[in-house]
Each structure stands twice: as structure tokens, then as C-alpha cells.
Design brief:
mainly alpha, globular, 17 helices, two-stranded parallel ribbon, 3 domains
Length: 394
């Protein structure tokens, strides 16, 4: 069933692509070709429905529907490359453009869970989405102007985000995840702000950003400062009780969907939860510091700050430091080491790198650890090393 679905949809896209390339030919048939486009797109929708309700496994469905998104995007690119010489050719390209947008709408509306959100989306799809929510964007601009004080940095981050989407041209490519989050963000924030008054706009704005998964670092820092202010001056016992309350609130607050503002960072609720758990451990183990490191006696390493942070992260995950609070780990690394390019680096910078390890950094760490494993094999397990060479050169 899976193979049949793939073959059928591929045939549909081949026909659509061929009609795109031959848009100016046989002009007398332009009306019938426009109808043919509608028929082909209808067949694609029917094929998707049959495939989705079959007994194909979820993993195969993800590959299948991601293939559909890539195929439609490729035809969009082909349409954009065409320059019609006749009126009928122009009408045909417009019909293709319209039907492809409707087809893509159907795909993301009904099968979003199976589409790889990292696939680049067509510019026309982004342009249409922004145009549809334009009035709501400008309404949010007006509301954000009313935000003042500590929340102003959050409002500025939102303004910058919305303006970036509005002003970006064809040279800026967005993936489906970024576009779907953008539309959800605008629609839900606009709807929520209708129930807000000017008096509580700041705190209301912040709460909505948490619910929407807007994991911008300025928002994270704002919530940190608010929670720190609530804890200020309290006894250790009351601080622990307050942190427990905050953790319970976070468990029920925040959007649990897969979409978020920045995929390089964890969800905003997860970031705050991790930070609060660290603060909780810090309260419990203030008398048991990990190590006392001399700030003026740093060990220079040939690793970057991001690589050091990556090592620290996986040391913590593998419990190399036992149950020590992560804040103590941060302090140890920032006070004890100089990186490849920085004699001194701040704890804030180290924490940022810790929570945003890139795939490039992960690959560099993997290579380093594999070299270490190979050296251990040569030094202590020569038979294992020799077997590895035999496999390599077989």
C-alpha cells in the first residue's frame, strides 16, 4: 500500500511539472488544462487520505508526507522560474499557483503531524500566510507599544520577530515549522490580547509568550528576574516551598505542542523548569560545593567554549558529577578553564552554550571521543584495535 501511494502521487507531480514547463503550448486547451490541474490536485488529496487511513506505520507515513511537501515545493520553484509569453500561459501558471497553495494548505492542515517541519517551504506559501494575518500583526504592534518597564525587552523581541517575517524577501528561506509556529503565534496572541486591559498588559503579554512557546532568551531572562524577585529575602525553607509552587505552575502552564520559536533552544517551560530544579538543588547543597577553584589559576584547553559546554552537558547527563547542582558545574568550568580563544569567559555565556549545543559542536565532540576510544583500544586492548583495522581494510 505504501509503495502504491508513492507511485501514484509521483505520477501526479510529474504531470503537474510537465504542464508547468509547457504552459505556453496548445493555448486553445488552456481551459481544459486548468481543469486537469484541479483533477490532479484532487487525486493527490484522495491518495493522501487513502494512505493516512491505511495500516502503514507512523515512521513510513512521515517519510511519505514529507516527500509530498518536498514535491509540491519543487513544483512551486518550477512555476516561479517560468515566464509566460501568452495570456493563456499566464492564466495556466496562475491556476497552478492557486491550486498548489490549496494543496499545500490541505497537507499542513490535515497531515502536519507527519510532515518534517525542517523542510524548506515555498516563498509563495510564506507570503500568503503573512498577508492573511497582516491586520493581526499590526494590532499586536499597537498592543506592544503599551508595554513598559521590565517587560519592554520582551515586547521588543516580539516586534523584531514579526517585522522580520513581514520584511523578508525571497532570499530568506523559512521551513514549515517556522511558518506554522508564526501563524499560530500571531493568531493566538492576537486573540488573547482582545481580553486584556491596558493596566495588566505587561504581565499578560509575558504569560501569553510562555503559553505560546516563545523561547526567546529575553523572555527567559524576564521570568528568571520575576522569580528571583519573588524569592528575594525569604528563608531557605520558604524559598524551597516557593520553587515547588513555581514548578507546579509550569507543569500546567505553557504550550505542550511541538512548535516553538527557536528550535536550537529547549521549550521555554523546560528551560525555566531546569533552572528552578538547579536552584532547588543549590538550596539543598549550598554547604557541599563541587570544587573550590582558584580564579587566577586556570587550565588552558584547546577546546572552544561551546565544546567545553557540550562536554559539561554530557558529564551532567551521565552523572559524572553525581547529584551536584548544575550551577556548581557551571561555576567550576568558568572558574577553572581558559578556552581555545578566551582567557576568561562568563558564566552567562557558558550557560547559553550549554543549552544550545549545535550539531557542528556535537560532531566535533563525537570525533574527539572516538579518537580517545581508539587510543584506549590501542593502549589497553590491542586485539580490539587490530580487529577494527581488519574490518576497515577488508
Amino acid at each position: 500500500m505504501e509503495t502504491e501511494g508513492l507511485i501514484t502521487s509521483t505520477g501526479i507531480y510529474v504531470q503537474l511539472a510537465e504542464m508547468t514547463r509547457c504552459h505556453d503550448s496548445v493555448v486553445s486547451q488552456s481551459q481544459s488544462r486548468s481543469e486537469k490541474i484541479q483533477v490532479l490536485c484532487s487525486e493527490a488529496r484522495n491518495t493522501w487520505a487513502s494512505t493516512a487511513f491505511s495500516d502503514i506505520k507512523a515512521e513510513a507515513l512521515c517519510r511519505y508526507f514529507s516527500y509530498q511537501a518536498k514535491s509540491i515545493t519543487a513544483i512551486f520553484d518550477l512555476v516561479d522560474q517560468q515566464r509566460a509569453k501568452t495570456d493563456d500561459g499566464k492564466k495556466l501558471l496562475l491556476a497552478l499557483h492557486k491550486e498548489l497553495l490549496l494543496l499545500l494548505d490541505h497537507l499542513v492542515n490535515y497531515f502536519e503531524a507527519y510532515v518534517d517541519i525542517n523542510i524548506d517551504a515555498p516563498y509563495a506559501f510564506k507570503e500568503r500566510l503573512v498577508r492573511e494575518v497582516s491586520s493581526k500583526i499590526h494590532s499586536i504592534y499597537a498592543w506592544s507599544d503599551k508595554v513598559a518597564g521590565a517587560q519592554k525587552s520582551m515586547a521588543a523581541a516580539v516586534l523584531s520577530y514579526l517585522q522580520y517575517f513581514e520584511s523578508s524577501g525571497k532570499q530568506t528561506v523559512f521551513n514549515f515549522g517556522e511558518l506554522l509556529f508564526f501563524v499560530k503565534f500571531v493568531n493566538r496572541l492576537h486573540h488573547a490580547l482582545q481580553a486584556c486591559t491596558d493596566a495588566d498588559i505587561g504581565s499578560f503579554f509575558a504569560d501569553q509568550l510562555l503559553k505560546l512557546g516563545f523561547n526567546h532568551y529575553a523572555v527567559f531572562e524576564y521570568f528568571q528576574s520575576v522569580i528571583r524577585q519573588r524569592l528575594k529575602g525569604k528563608s531557605p525553607e520558604k524559598k524551597k516551598s516557593s520553587i515547588d509552587t513555581e514548578l507546579r505552575l509550569l507543569a500546567y502552564d505553557g504550550d505542550q505542542g511541538g512548535l516553538r520559536y527557536d528550535y536550537r533552544w529547549p521549550r521555554l517551560g523546560d528551560m525555566l523548569t531546569d533552572w528552578l530544579l538547579e536552584e532547588q538543588k543549590k538550596l539543598e547543597k549550598e554547604s557541599q560545593p563541587l570544587l573550590t577553584a582558584c580564579k587566577n589559576n586556570r587550565i588552558h584547553v584547546t577546546l572552544s567554549v561551546s565544546q567545553l559546554a557540550g562536554l559539561a552537558k554530557y558529564f551532567v547527563k551521565e552523572k559524572v558529577f553525581g547529584d551536584q547542582a548544575v550551577n556548581h558545574v557551571f561555576a567550576f568550568f568558568t572558574n577553572s578553564f581558559s578556552s581555545k580563544r578566551q582567557e576568561v569567559f562568563s558564566q552567562g555565556n557558558f550557560i547559553k552554550e550549554y543549552y544550545s549545543i549545535s550539531q557542528v559542536t556535537a560532531a566535533e565532540l563525537r570525533d574527539l571521543l572516538l579518537r580517545m576510544v581508539a587510543r584506549i583500544n590501542r593502549d589497553f586492548f590491542p586485539a580490539v584495535a587490530a580487529a577494527g583495522l581488519l574490518i576497515l581494510f577488508r
